[in-house]
Amino acid sequence: MSRALARAEEHGARSLQVFTKNARGWKAPPLTEEECHAFREEVRRTGLPVVAHGSYLVNLGTEEPAQREKSLDCVVEELTRCERLGIPFLILHPGGHPDERRGLALISRALDEVHARTPRFQSRICLEVTAGQGNCLGWRFEHLAEVLSQTKDAGRLGICLDTCHLFAAGYDLSTETGYHEVMEECDRVVGLERVHCVHLNDSKKPLGCRVDRHEEVGKGAIGLTPFRCLMKDARFVNTIGILETPYPERYAEAIKRLESLARRK
Ligand SMILES: [Zn+2]
User: Fold this and answer.
1) Ligand 1 centre distance from Cα of residue 200 (Å)
2) 196 in a known ligand binding site
3) What is the domain range of residue 59?
4) Number of domains in the chain
């Protein structure tokens, strides 16, 4: 884990996202005290803000008892790892269920249980807006607002935006006007003060397709406009920005591109 910081530095990154365990498996070897210490030391040395992304197997909206149990244990384990590593945010996709209302209620109950099992933790869960693939919930700001309103200790929850997911979910932020309308809507429904992280991905797929396929910033269906708006938006000056494209060899270039957008008039 501790090697992630130096690797991010090599790309010229100013923040990073990690997995605290294999994102496509339930089980994970225990995290040693040495590894936690080394990680915290690296965070101190580099000064880079870090967020963690949760396992892709987790579904807090499931009705199926065994699946639900495994999901809850997994989130508790990941949040515990974040706490030990000093990572302030664990980003989670809210979950899926064929019935929207029922699913959102189940997600809130699951979050209540996670919170009850992790009292006084500093590390917090950020619910990520999704592309709305299949029966995934969280692709409308209203879904996130509903989960926030039904979760007892909602003050422990934050939000993570993802430009690709928003666009795929039907939020057209590809123009300057569109960008501002989407952010105003987000502010009105969930509150921008809850947004601690933004995933900076373009989309391979068109507006409203509800298919989640990330593309490099400015090279997909969204284009550069919202990234320029975001990089210059004073409301996000302290928000962590993360690239989630499958091209690590081009991260350095993408980071430079984003930084030049921030400087452009
Ligand atoms: Zn994302």
Assistant:
1) 8
2) no
3) 3-263
4) 1
In sequence order, what are the residues at sequence separation of 6 or more whose Cβ sits closer than 8 angstroms to the Cβ of residue 221? 167, 174, 202, 203, 204, 205, 206, 207, 215
Q: Could you give the strand order of the β-sheet that contains 240-242, starting from the edge strand earlier in sequence?
A: 16-18, 50-53, 89-92, 124-128, 157-162, 195-199, 240-242
List residues with catalytic annotation.
24, 53, 56, 93, 128, 162, 165, 199, 212, 214, 244
> Is pLDDT of 23 > 80?
yes
Domain harbouring 73, CATH code = 3.20.20.150
Is 108 within 8 Å of 140 (Cβ atoms)?
no
* Cβ-contact 161, 198 below 8 angstroms: yes
Calculate how far, in angstroms, residue 92's C-alpha sits from the geometric centre of ligand 1: 9
Q: What's the DSSP call for residue 103?
A: H
For residue 12, how far is its CA from the centre of ligand 1 (angstroms)?
A: 20
Q: What percentage of the chain reaches a pLDDT higher than 70? A: 100
Smallest CA-to-CA distance from 3 within 92, 14, 16 is with 16
Question: How far is 80 from 250, CA to CA, in rounded Å?
Answer: 32
Contact call for residues 114 and 149 (beta carbons, < 8 A): no
Interval between CA 166 and ligand 1 midpoint (Å): 10
Q: Beta 195-199 vs 202-203: how paired, if at all?
A: unpaired
Measured distance CA(8)–CA(250) in Å, rounded? 12
Separation CA 177–CA 114 (nearest Å) = 39
Q: Is 202 annotated as a binding residue?
A: no
CB neighbours (10 Å) of residue 152? 12
Per-residue model confidence as pLDDT tens digits over 201-219: 999 999 999 999 999 998 9
99 is annotated as contributing to ligand binding: no
Q: What is the pLDDT of residue 259?
A: 93
